[in-house]
Known about the structure:
This protein has helices at 8-22, 30-45, 77-89, 126-138, 266-280, 313-322, 326-341, 347-360, 384-396, 401-406, 465-482; strands at residues 46-56, 61-65, 96-101, 104-106, 109-111, 114-118, 143-145, 148-151, 159-161, 175-177, 185-191, 201-205, 211-220, 229-233, 241-250, 257-262, 284-285, 303-309, 368-369, 381-382, 409-410, 427-435, 438-446, 452-462. It has 486 residues and is an alpha+beta fold. The strands form seven sheets. A six-stranded antiparallel sheet has the order 2-1-24-23-22-21, sandwiched between helices. Strands 8-6-3-18 form a four-stranded mixed sheet, covered by helices on one side.
Amino acid sequence: MATLIPDPRILLASLAVVLLLSAPDARATAWEQIQAQLLSQAGEAAGSLGVEVIALPSGHPLWSHRAMEPMIPASLLKAATSYAALKTLGPGHRFRTTAQTNGTMEGSTLVGDLWLKSEGDIFWTAERASSLALQLKAKGLEAIRGRIRVDNSHFSPPFERVCLDEPCEDSYNPMISGTAIEFNSFLARVRPASSVGKPPRVEWLPPGAYARVLQQARTASRKSRSTLVLERLEPDTLGVMRLQLSGQIPISRTVAMERRFSAERPATFVAEVFTTIIESSGIRVEARTPDGKAPESMPADARILAEDLSPPLAETIHGLNRHSNNFMAEMLLRAMGAAALGPPGTEAKGLAVMSKVMMALGAETEHCVLKTGSGLSRSCRMSPRSLGRILVAAFSDRALGAAFMNSLAVNGQEGTMRRRISSPSVTIRGKTGTLRDVTGFAGYVSSPGRPSYAVVILFNDVHHLGRAREAMDSFLEKLALAGPPP
């Protein structure tokens, strides 16, 4: 006779009833009612739920529901990546990006190529690249009789795409490289031409000659309907990206379309962006067009002409957690691998560093299976308890606790929680995570005059994301206002 497997949703609902009826006189306390409500709502939204609620600062568990079960963490994994990086590199760590050459100076002209090389800076921007260019200008450089080249050897492979779901080209699947600028991505902005019948205007942010458009679109009359389509094509033989624009755009629209793309060839992208930046600073680059060569390492006898240091990790890590930036997480994973185990940084080295940090917290290997730094993998597994250990350790760590906690999103204010739980009497700092069938929260819950808690909630096998989020937010708010004593 076949064995009947109970529906997990029925089990969760049944457990909620048991919690209610097990209280003295069948009258549940407020805390028991809060637990029961979450379990009941979870049964309607997902196949499985894991919860860990911990008193702070003692670290004493107040409620554990399937807390030892390894689950898909989605972007909650970024909390582990950022904690491990702060622990390994330190909150004051700065990434260095250098401009180097083995060429010679003839007056104010550099005869030779100018190389850019970074230590895996997770947030090198066009603004900071401009600062590097101005340093070169201040040293008297006026022309480069060569090309701008990029050394990506701080990572191995020199560049790679981390892909969760097809199409891999979507911008949330990041392109990682040892030297990167603006997340290795650009914004294409399309505006109507000044008169009907002409092709629309296209501009790139950041500026640069790293992409070109095959125009098959036109500007239409004011009352026309926009039918613009902007598609990615294969790069040309020199590595320059190609986009095809088709359809029409009404002349009345000021900004018709904005779409973000990730760079297919990071070395070409960084070189072209910096070439544009350095020329805008007043330094002429004579070999302006890309030469189509594969990514290289700069000559061993290259010397540093100028360098840019990033802000401290405690500052740059904000973007990683508050806005759940996949690119920053994957870059940081490899950068800490290089720092701890020697360059080049690799995914494997970064994961080894993370595993060591997690084991020091007492997270058992079977409860913590690491595959990426961002959570862009359905092979990753972390138990709510493992994530809870990170929260408790960070809360009590004077060296890095403030940096970690300040990096998290805040309810009703900033980051991924800016539109959630807007109650002014509740403060929730945390990392959220979402895939199409996963959602969760890991962070801190407090309210004036009441205890503080570390909380991990993980929904897997989600079939209704909206209901799961509503259940999670309701639980967090009620916990802050009516949770148990420590």
